Fold:
Amino acid sequence: MYRIRFHGRGGQGMKTASRILGSAFFLEGFDVQDAPRYGAERRGAPIFAYVRASRQAINERGVIHHPDLVVVADDSLVPVPAAAVLQGLDAHTVTLINSHTSAADWQQRLNLAGPVLILPATEEAEDRAELPFVGTTCAAAAARLVGVISRDALAEAIRTELGALGSQLVEKNTEAALQAYDLMEPHAGTVTEGKAHSASGYARPDWIGMTVEDVDLAAPSIHAAATSVEVKTGLWRTLRPVIDYDRCSRCWWVCSTFCPDSAIAVDADGRPDIDYDHCKGCLICVAKCPPHAIEAIPEHLAQAAEETNA
Amino acid sequence: MTRTLLTGNAAAAWGARLASVDYVPAFPITPQTEIIETLAAWLDRDEMPGRLVMLESEHSMITAAGAAATSGVRVFTATSSQGLLYGMEMVYTVAGWRAPFVMVNVSRGLASPLTLEPDHTDIMAARDSGFLQIHCASCQEVLDSVLIAYRLAEDHRVRLPVIVNLDGFYLSFTREPVEIPEADAVSRFLPPFDAESTRFSASAPTSQAVAVLSGTPYSYFRYECHLAAQNAITVYDEAAAVFASVFGRHHEAVEAYRSEDADIVFVMIGSFATKAREAVDRLREAGQAVGLVRPRLLRPYPAEQLLRLLAGKRGVAVIDQNLSMGMGGVLHTELSAALYGKPGAPAVLLSFIGGLGGRDITPEEFYEIAAVTRQAAEDGVVPPPRLLYSRDEHREVTKLQAIAHTERNELESKP
Structure:
């Protein structure tokens, strides 16, 4: 059975990636299970999705503990414990990272037992009409790495999953996907099916006997105020909204009202200021700004510019 | 017949569509919302007839479902977890009306603390209501069970509402290959709803009311409800047999997987049971005679089938994905009651609690459950109930508690 995990941020299309890969396997005659896993959060929050594919009926369910392939759409997730990108990786696991950093650097940083491959991160288009297709390219690269999915099956899977979005988007996604598919050509078949979990000589679970503890400890209460201030959700951002104050009309209420995270404050003169510690990069302000004074800039470019300026 | 990839939620919506439901009272809740969104989209595009009405709460939604069902239309609705509990007053009430309709519950653990992930404590809260319960282990079963549920609910010998239960995430958001039956095959299995005596008509206004009653008539009506629920064992078996003849898929009231020659048997419900099926295959490869017995039908309780399937086994491990506070696992309690004093009852019946709030159950844990159960059978001593919980997990919670403690101290030290 193939067991594949996709890690990314809400909005990057990891669920869609798992569905494209799932459909492609299905078209090739495999039994398939694909599913996303996420919490109550929205755009920018770490999410993952997974695909199982087998020639036999699939009885396994839920989170994949020992993946054959891990695809990471956003390399900033690698060190985030909650994202659990590195969970269960062994010598058999191939790790594919969408990154500007080299495979050798990632291998050196993480000391992984299995191979690391890089899907060169595309420069996110600054024109918001052009989406970077991260999910589709991740799915396509995975499809090539397993070596059992044809170009035609991949293209058909993209039509199946994205057809409702219109033919233009399907075409663009297919083009980006096939490029990623061809890019992985030298590594075709690198990812192979993992074994079943044998019941002979298994590692016994380290169960404990739960004991009753004092209610002050054992009740799930949080006795602290303003914890949302402490959590820097700005770290989730892949695109940064930047205000052009020359164009800003000081209308004062549109961007700040529509911001779902109350991350835009307006001073007495009507000047909006974005709190980048808590802006998740949902870009609703970009869409809502009447004089189009807010631009979206790839976060890693914005950070690089900050470092240069510093 | 088309085999396609569907989530459990989409499969539930397909079940409602193929059952040609007339009316869908709705209210959103994670992880159920995709069901009503799917139906709303189809209704909006005229791909299916019928009406969907958004109510202001699950309490009203279930009231509307019961009222519509007694007025002679086929009703479908869906909820989950906190929503099911919010509507609980009416869950009991409409079952007492003998209103036949189908409600899908997407299982999700109950607050507090809050979770979005599944366990069965929510659906166990509806256990004693008069709603019948079918528990699904795959997306295909979800679609098929909705169709079977209408036959069951509308049967003259039963006339009770039915809950079809599926696990959040593990089924609701998981796509699997599902065969979508052709409409004409469905019409051979499921005839149009005949409301019989309960039909209402717009031109002939009438009212249906339930009186306040003393113990004597009250007992009569409540016990009649119970007996009708028990009738549903036979009616379910008939429906499942017809279903198999029309569609070729078998959904017996109790699934027996490699249990016939097994000496150790797992008993559990829901989608995690497929994990047990996988573990059974691996344990068989390792030379162990282990099987799985999985009730699909939980209300009415298939006591006779369970006794027949478990008689003579050396040991049985019940894995409960629910928790009755101060008692333990509900399935273990009920199976103990069903087997007590019966000839051939297994000597040891062990209780394991696992999968609360979506916590996984690993293959190694199933292997260990089999080993512990085998040991108990050899020793003749039943160990106390076991929560599936590792030292590492406890360490993780201790870490959270330490952080909370530090923050609390910081807060209290502030002026």
About this structure: The mean pLDDT of chain B is 95.
